[in-house]
Amino acid sequence: MLGMPGSVITTTRPVLLEQAAREHLRVHSPIDGALVGLIRISDETEIIDAVRTARATLPAWSGTSATDRGRRIRAAASAVRGVIDELAALQHAETGRPVTYARAGVLAGVEILERYAELGPVHRGRSVLGKQAAVDLTVPEPLGVVAVLTSWNDPVAVSCGLLGAALATGNTVVFKPSERTAHLGLRLAEVVASALPTGVLGVLSGDGRTGARLTAEPGIDLIAHVGSAETGRDIAEVAARAGTAVLLENGGNDALIVDEGVDIGWAAEQTARAAFAETGQRRASVERVYVHRAVAAVFQHRLAAEADRLAAGSGRFAETWPSDDELGPLVDRHSRERVHDQVSEAVAQGAWALAGGRIPRGPGAYYPATVLADCTPQMRVMREETCGPVAALRVVEDFDQALTEAAQDRHGRAATVLTASMSRAQRAWRELPVGTVRVNSVAGAGPGSDVRPRRGFGTGLSFAFGPELLDEMTAMKVVHLGLAVPGERPIKRVVTAMYGGEEEHDA
């Protein structure tokens, strides 16, 4: 076993190669294809037991004061901080993410846990105006057992956000991390659970079949999932039949508009950062780029030069992007094939690869930074999530066309506008039907300021890990307290003269 303490339901363990069978996950490094490890997949009995244990521990945990829950979560944050380097190394091994980025992601997870340790105790209901002889109020209560399923591309921060919000509000959790970050997910669960009472946090390991079985378990009250749109659709269907609450953030196809009048070199650098950083696998990565015809020729040339500068390399990375000269791998070769299929299909339909567009030789799952010109709205690379280092360019005649086409997004997650015009910036954030609009900056936002997608691939108010997520993790109960007691003398209001005026008091 991975040394899982009693506070975690132990359902997985690495095994020796000769013991491996079909019931084990094989995790390979996308850097060189080497085997990272083997982890046993949780079976049906373990899934049922995990949910039952979470249900059994729910009354005690929900009955714990919010202040004491906050102390526990703060201790969990401290424990995670103590293993930052270990978690970053695991993420690098399993996903190829540069260690510097991985450390930043772990630190973000620590800060999110600390945030919920503070926000949980001050989460509150409201009083409601009613009759004079009554008190009406709303009180937040835990939803119950929460199934948390997370993605591989920002695994620690996202997991800490969902776990922190669920635990702070008195829910118990069964956690199934992505199979692509199985070792990382198990270790993170072990560390967080070490600060919690036994059974409050359970962890399962497996692929999509394990997640599907978990979400179909009758004892689940809320499913919180960050991952692919396809998986999100399946979860939504299962939850609709069972009446289970859901929080989903699924996929993205974010747009970026390059307006006339901007500094072309700056715009190219911003676009490259948005599309290619972390190999285009961030939740906030830009995939569609709409360029004003007045600047299109020069911009395309400059962006292609930025892409050519980023070589798919051996995994050595500088401290900050975009000063590094190498691009990391995609998470696995299956993802690379999917990215390349979209690129090849676009080229066959008339797009031009100004940079990249070819699978490099050698081990690993590397793919070059790719710039596609002459893209049309009908191409899959413009309509579907790519999740790779690909910038699909479309030349537009004016800002109106850019806004119109950028808004044609079934995800509605985010969009970015680079413009020298304040009035156009105002139009963009008002008119684009997305959860987040960035103006003249492709990265950076205050804590809790990034909200969920607007369309069919997100439900719930916020996955930005701010105070709103606490509302989504709870059910509001309305309480009406009538003040009159049967047989008690009714209250009468008496008015008496006082200092030339009148005063009301009880008789």
UniProtKB/TrEMBL annotation:
Domain Aldehyde dehydrogenase residue range list? 22-479
Which is one GO molecular function term here? oxidoreductase activity, acting on the aldehyde or oxo group of donors, NAD or NADP as acceptor
Q: What is this protein called?
A: NAD-dependent aldehyde dehydrogenase
The alphabetized UniProt keywords are: Oxidoreductase
**Sorted alphabetically, which SUPFAM superfamilies does this protein's record hold?**
ALDH-like (SSF53720)
Q: Is Nucleus among the key words of this record?
A: no
What InterPro entries does the database record attribute to this sequence? Ald_DH/histidinol_DH, Ald_DH_C, Ald_DH_N, Aldehyde_DH_dom
